[in-house]
Amino acid sequence: MRLSAFTVTESTPQLLIDMTKLYRPFQSNEAEIKNDFDKLLQDNGQALFVAKFNDRHIGGLIMQYNDSELVLSCIAVRDITQQRGVGKYLIQQAIEHAKTQHLKTVKIIKTAQITPELSAFLIHQGFTEQDSEFNFSC
Description:
Layout: E1 4-7, H1 13-23, H2 30-42, E2 46-53, E3 56-66, E4 69-77, H3 86-100, E5 105-109, H4 116-124, E6 128-129, E7 133-137
Parallel strand pairs: 4-5
Antiparallel strand pairs: 1-2, 2-3, 3-4, 5-7, 6-7
């Protein structure tokens, strides 16, 4: 099966199982994860963008549109699939999505989730680091 990336439009039981596994390191309460994703899917200002392989969601991020930019947050790849190009593919597809929407910049705001490893990864993907964010010019 082929790796794909797309915007989620509705919740499924498998999506919830996969997202719980994906985001458990950041939020251990499964009920809260489910509630957060239900809210996310109903929020017109944000979108869940996922990577899927063999009918499993193995990576994800949240996209939010601001004027001429796409803001990414909650970037995560399942630990068992890291170091295999999933994160790279997910970020590249999000950038392509921004270009398709004629947005000028993809931005990631620095939070506690942005580890030194993720920072290095983003720089390697072409983002430039500024004081409180990473930027990619489309």
